[in-house]
Amino acid sequence: MSQILAVLFDGFAYGMLLFLLSVGLSVTLGLMNFINLAHGAFAMIGGYVTFALVSLAGWPFLATLPFAFLITAIIAAGFEVLLFRRIYQSGELNQVLFTIGFVFSMSAVAAYLFGTVNQSVKMPEFLTGFIELAGVKLPSYRIFLAAIALVVTIIVVAGLEYTRFGAMVRASVDNQKVARGLGLNVSKIFALTFAIGSGLAGLGGALSIEILSLDPSFGFHILVLVLIVVAVGGLGSVWGSFVAAACLGIFDVMGKYLFPELGSFLIYLFMVVLLFYKPLGLFGKR
Questions:
Q1: C-alpha distances in Å from residue 164, one per residue of 128, 145, 189
Q2: Could you tell me the pTM of the whole model?
Q3: What backbone phi and psi angles, to 5 degrees, belong to 228?
Q4: To 10 degrees, what angle do helices 39-51 and 61-82 make?
Protein backbone atom coordinates (compact mmCIF):
# COMPACT_ATOMS: atom_id res chain seq x y z
CA MET A 1 0.00 0.00 0.00
CA SER A 2 2.80 2.43 0.85
CA GLN A 3 4.37 1.75 -2.54
CA ILE A 4 1.08 2.43 -4.32
CA LEU A 5 0.64 5.68 -2.39
CA ALA A 6 4.18 6.71 -3.31
CA VAL A 7 3.48 6.00 -7.00
CA LEU A 8 0.22 7.97 -6.83
CA PHE A 9 1.97 10.95 -5.30
CA ASP A 10 4.75 10.67 -7.86
CA GLY A 11 2.11 10.80 -10.59
CA PHE A 12 0.39 13.78 -8.98
CA ALA A 13 3.71 15.64 -8.70
CA TYR A 14 4.46 14.89 -12.36
CA GLY A 15 1.00 16.18 -13.20
CA MET A 16 1.74 19.39 -11.30
CA LEU A 17 4.86 19.83 -13.40
CA LEU A 18 2.72 19.42 -16.53
CA PHE A 19 0.32 22.00 -15.13
CA LEU A 20 3.08 24.52 -14.48
CA LEU A 21 4.27 24.03 -18.05
CA SER A 22 0.78 24.28 -19.56
CA VAL A 23 -1.04 26.91 -17.47
CA GLY A 24 0.46 29.73 -19.55
CA LEU A 25 -0.82 28.08 -22.73
CA SER A 26 -4.24 27.78 -21.11
CA VAL A 27 -4.14 31.56 -20.67
CA THR A 28 -2.95 32.49 -24.17
CA LEU A 29 -4.83 29.82 -26.12
CA GLY A 30 -7.93 29.65 -23.94
CA LEU A 31 -8.42 33.36 -23.29
CA MET A 32 -6.72 35.09 -26.23
CA ASN A 33 -7.81 32.56 -28.90
CA PHE A 34 -4.21 32.51 -30.13
CA ILE A 35 -2.76 29.14 -31.24
CA ASN A 36 0.57 29.61 -29.50
CA LEU A 37 2.74 26.62 -30.38
CA ALA A 38 5.72 28.79 -29.40
CA HIS A 39 4.81 28.17 -25.77
CA GLY A 40 7.44 25.44 -25.45
CA ALA A 41 10.15 27.85 -26.62
CA PHE A 42 9.38 30.22 -23.75
CA ALA A 43 9.51 27.32 -21.31
CA MET A 44 12.96 26.52 -22.72
CA ILE A 45 14.03 30.14 -22.27
CA GLY A 46 13.05 30.04 -18.60
CA GLY A 47 14.98 26.82 -18.16
CA TYR A 48 18.12 28.33 -19.67
CA VAL A 49 17.76 31.47 -17.54
CA THR A 50 17.86 29.29 -14.43
CA PHE A 51 20.71 27.19 -15.83
CA ALA A 52 22.78 30.28 -16.61
CA LEU A 53 22.18 31.87 -13.21
CA VAL A 54 22.89 28.66 -11.27
CA SER A 55 25.74 27.13 -13.26
CA LEU A 56 27.43 30.20 -14.69
CA ALA A 57 26.68 32.93 -12.12
CA GLY A 58 26.59 30.75 -9.00
CA TRP A 59 23.11 31.74 -7.84
CA PRO A 60 21.10 29.42 -5.57
CA PHE A 61 18.35 27.57 -7.44
CA LEU A 62 15.39 29.09 -5.59
CA ALA A 63 16.65 32.63 -6.17
CA THR A 64 16.57 32.08 -9.93
CA LEU A 65 12.88 31.13 -10.14
CA PRO A 66 11.45 34.69 -9.99
CA PHE A 67 13.95 35.74 -12.66
CA ALA A 68 13.03 32.78 -14.87
CA PHE A 69 9.48 34.15 -14.81
CA LEU A 70 10.38 37.84 -15.18
CA ILE A 71 13.05 37.55 -17.87
CA THR A 72 10.91 35.17 -19.93
CA ALA A 73 7.91 37.50 -19.56
CA ILE A 74 9.97 40.50 -20.71
CA ILE A 75 11.36 38.61 -23.70
CA ALA A 76 7.87 37.38 -24.58
CA ALA A 77 6.43 40.90 -24.34
CA GLY A 78 9.07 42.12 -26.80
CA PHE A 79 8.32 39.34 -29.26
CA GLU A 80 4.58 39.95 -28.85
CA VAL A 81 4.98 43.60 -29.83
CA LEU A 82 7.37 42.92 -32.70
CA LEU A 83 5.96 39.68 -34.11
CA PHE A 84 3.02 37.87 -32.59
CA ARG A 85 0.42 40.64 -32.54
CA ARG A 86 0.72 40.84 -36.32
CA ILE A 87 -0.80 37.37 -36.72
CA TYR A 88 -3.64 37.46 -34.16
CA GLN A 89 -6.17 38.02 -36.93
CA SER A 90 -4.38 36.11 -39.71
CA GLY A 91 -6.06 32.73 -39.27
CA GLU A 92 -5.24 29.49 -37.49
CA LEU A 93 -2.94 28.04 -40.16
CA ASN A 94 -0.70 31.11 -40.20
CA GLN A 95 -0.56 31.09 -36.42
CA VAL A 96 0.46 27.42 -36.36
CA LEU A 97 3.15 27.84 -39.03
CA PHE A 98 4.58 31.01 -37.56
CA THR A 99 4.72 29.84 -33.95
CA ILE A 100 6.20 26.42 -34.75
CA GLY A 101 8.81 28.22 -36.87
CA PHE A 102 9.56 30.37 -33.84
CA VAL A 103 10.30 27.22 -31.81
CA PHE A 104 12.77 26.05 -34.47
CA SER A 105 14.48 29.46 -34.39
CA MET A 106 14.76 29.55 -30.58
CA SER A 107 16.04 25.98 -30.57
CA ALA A 108 18.83 26.98 -32.95
CA VAL A 109 19.70 30.01 -30.80
CA ALA A 110 19.84 27.83 -27.66
CA ALA A 111 22.06 25.28 -29.41
CA TYR A 112 24.43 28.07 -30.49
CA LEU A 113 24.63 29.64 -27.01
CA PHE A 114 24.59 26.59 -24.74
CA GLY A 115 25.43 23.61 -26.94
CA THR A 116 23.31 20.57 -27.71
CA VAL A 117 24.00 18.50 -24.57
CA ASN A 118 21.51 17.99 -21.74
CA GLN A 119 21.96 20.54 -18.96
CA SER A 120 21.28 20.17 -15.26
CA VAL A 121 21.50 22.43 -12.21
CA LYS A 122 22.62 21.92 -8.64
CA MET A 123 19.63 21.63 -6.34
CA PRO A 124 19.60 22.69 -2.68
CA GLU A 125 20.15 19.81 -0.30
CA PHE A 126 16.71 20.07 1.30
CA LEU A 127 15.12 19.41 -2.11
CA THR A 128 17.20 16.33 -2.92
CA GLY A 129 16.11 14.00 -0.15
CA PHE A 130 12.90 12.39 1.03
CA ILE A 131 10.24 13.30 3.56
CA GLU A 132 8.38 10.53 5.34
CA LEU A 133 4.65 11.08 5.79
CA ALA A 134 2.48 8.38 7.37
CA GLY A 135 5.13 5.78 6.67
CA VAL A 136 5.48 6.79 3.00
CA LYS A 137 8.75 8.29 1.73
CA LEU A 138 8.05 11.12 -0.70
CA PRO A 139 10.68 12.99 -2.72
CA SER A 140 11.19 16.49 -1.34
CA TYR A 141 11.39 18.09 -4.76
CA ARG A 142 8.08 16.64 -5.88
CA ILE A 143 6.41 17.95 -2.72
CA PHE A 144 7.90 21.34 -3.60
CA LEU A 145 6.48 21.09 -7.13
CA ALA A 146 3.01 20.29 -5.84
CA ALA A 147 3.10 23.24 -3.44
CA ILE A 148 4.25 25.66 -6.17
CA ALA A 149 1.52 24.42 -8.53
CA LEU A 150 -1.19 24.98 -5.92
CA VAL A 151 0.03 28.53 -5.25
CA VAL A 152 0.19 29.33 -8.99
CA THR A 153 -3.31 27.94 -9.50
CA ILE A 154 -4.79 30.12 -6.77
CA ILE A 155 -3.00 33.25 -8.03
CA VAL A 156 -3.94 32.73 -11.69
CA VAL A 157 -7.59 31.84 -11.00
CA ALA A 158 -7.98 34.77 -8.60
CA GLY A 159 -6.31 37.12 -11.06
CA LEU A 160 -8.50 36.10 -13.99
CA GLU A 161 -11.81 35.66 -12.22
CA TYR A 162 -11.86 38.26 -9.45
CA THR A 163 -9.78 41.23 -10.61
CA ARG A 164 -10.35 44.17 -12.92
CA PHE A 165 -7.53 42.98 -15.16
CA GLY A 166 -9.20 39.59 -15.64
CA ALA A 167 -12.44 41.33 -16.60
CA MET A 168 -10.58 43.50 -19.11
CA VAL A 169 -8.94 40.45 -20.68
CA ARG A 170 -12.27 38.69 -21.10
CA ALA A 171 -13.88 41.82 -22.51
CA SER A 172 -11.04 42.32 -24.99
CA VAL A 173 -11.32 38.74 -26.20
CA ASP A 174 -15.11 38.73 -26.50
CA ASN A 175 -15.39 41.94 -28.53
CA GLN A 176 -12.36 44.08 -29.29
CA LYS A 177 -14.34 46.91 -30.90
CA VAL A 178 -16.60 47.34 -27.89
CA ALA A 179 -13.63 47.07 -25.53
CA ARG A 180 -11.81 49.81 -27.40
CA GLY A 181 -14.99 51.88 -27.37
CA LEU A 182 -15.03 51.62 -23.58
CA GLY A 183 -11.51 53.00 -23.44
CA LEU A 184 -9.56 49.76 -22.99
CA ASN A 185 -6.10 49.51 -24.54
CA VAL A 186 -6.59 46.08 -26.10
CA SER A 187 -3.05 45.87 -27.51
CA LYS A 188 -1.54 46.57 -24.10
CA ILE A 189 -3.85 44.07 -22.40
CA PHE A 190 -2.97 41.35 -24.91
CA ALA A 191 0.76 42.07 -24.57
CA LEU A 192 0.56 41.81 -20.77
CA THR A 193 -1.53 38.64 -20.93
CA PHE A 194 0.90 37.06 -23.38
CA ALA A 195 3.84 38.06 -21.19
CA ILE A 196 2.26 36.54 -18.07
CA GLY A 197 1.38 33.31 -19.86
CA SER A 198 4.88 33.01 -21.28
CA GLY A 199 6.44 33.92 -17.94
CA LEU A 200 4.54 31.05 -16.34
CA ALA A 201 5.95 28.80 -19.07
CA GLY A 202 9.43 30.04 -18.17
CA LEU A 203 8.81 29.22 -14.52
CA GLY A 204 7.63 25.75 -15.50
CA GLY A 205 10.70 25.27 -17.67
CA ALA A 206 12.99 26.21 -14.78
CA LEU A 207 11.25 23.82 -12.41
CA SER A 208 11.32 20.98 -14.94
CA ILE A 209 15.10 20.84 -15.33
CA GLU A 210 15.46 18.43 -12.41
CA ILE A 211 12.93 15.96 -13.85
CA LEU A 212 12.91 16.41 -17.64
CA SER A 213 16.45 17.83 -18.14
CA LEU A 214 17.11 20.68 -20.54
CA ASP A 215 18.39 20.83 -24.12
CA PRO A 216 17.62 22.89 -27.25
CA SER A 217 14.83 20.50 -28.26
CA PHE A 218 13.01 21.02 -24.95
CA GLY A 219 10.33 23.17 -26.61
CA PHE A 220 9.39 20.31 -28.92
CA HIS A 221 9.46 17.64 -26.20
CA ILE A 222 6.89 19.33 -24.02
CA LEU A 223 4.67 20.72 -26.78
CA VAL A 224 2.51 17.60 -27.18
CA LEU A 225 2.15 17.18 -23.41
CA VAL A 226 1.00 20.74 -22.76
CA LEU A 227 -1.43 20.61 -25.69
CA ILE A 228 -2.91 17.40 -24.25
CA VAL A 229 -3.35 19.06 -20.85
CA VAL A 230 -5.11 22.09 -22.33
CA ALA A 231 -7.31 19.96 -24.62
CA VAL A 232 -8.35 17.58 -21.84
CA GLY A 233 -8.91 20.37 -19.34
CA GLY A 234 -10.93 22.47 -21.79
CA LEU A 235 -10.23 25.86 -23.36
CA GLY A 236 -10.62 28.83 -21.08
CA SER A 237 -10.46 26.89 -17.80
CA VAL A 238 -7.39 27.10 -15.56
CA TRP A 239 -9.00 24.72 -13.08
CA GLY A 240 -9.63 22.37 -15.98
CA SER A 241 -5.93 22.38 -16.83
CA PHE A 242 -5.10 21.71 -13.17
CA VAL A 243 -7.44 18.72 -12.94
CA ALA A 244 -6.40 17.42 -16.36
CA ALA A 245 -2.70 17.66 -15.51
CA ALA A 246 -3.20 15.85 -12.20
CA CYS A 247 -5.23 13.06 -13.86
CA LEU A 248 -2.81 12.69 -16.76
CA GLY A 249 0.21 12.62 -14.47
CA ILE A 250 -1.30 9.95 -12.22
CA PHE A 251 -2.56 7.94 -15.19
CA ASP A 252 0.83 8.09 -16.89
CA VAL A 253 2.93 7.12 -13.87
CA MET A 254 0.50 4.44 -12.66
CA GLY A 255 0.31 3.05 -16.19
CA LYS A 256 4.08 2.80 -16.45
CA TYR A 257 4.19 1.16 -13.00
CA LEU A 258 1.46 -1.41 -13.69
CA PHE A 259 1.98 -1.90 -17.44
CA PRO A 260 5.60 -0.90 -18.19
CA GLU A 261 5.48 -2.54 -21.62
CA LEU A 262 2.94 0.04 -22.79
CA GLY A 263 5.17 2.98 -21.89
CA SER A 264 3.56 6.38 -22.49
CA PHE A 265 0.78 5.03 -24.69
CA LEU A 266 -1.78 5.10 -21.87
CA ILE A 267 -1.71 8.88 -21.56
CA TYR A 268 -2.78 9.17 -25.21
CA LEU A 269 -5.43 6.49 -24.75
CA PHE A 270 -6.82 8.43 -21.80
CA MET A 271 -6.97 11.60 -23.92
CA VAL A 272 -8.69 9.91 -26.88
CA VAL A 273 -11.34 8.20 -24.73
CA LEU A 274 -12.12 11.32 -22.71
CA LEU A 275 -12.33 13.64 -25.73
CA PHE A 276 -14.51 11.10 -27.54
CA TYR A 277 -17.17 11.45 -24.84
CA LYS A 278 -16.41 15.08 -23.87
CA PRO A 279 -15.13 16.90 -26.99
CA LEU A 280 -14.90 20.20 -25.09
CA GLY A 281 -12.72 18.69 -22.40
CA LEU A 282 -13.45 18.38 -18.68
CA PHE A 283 -14.38 22.02 -18.10
CA GLY A 284 -14.39 23.45 -21.60
CA LYS A 285 -16.50 26.54 -22.17
CA ARG A 286 -16.43 26.40 -25.95
A1: 40, 29, 11
A2: 0.89
A3: -65, -45
A4: 140
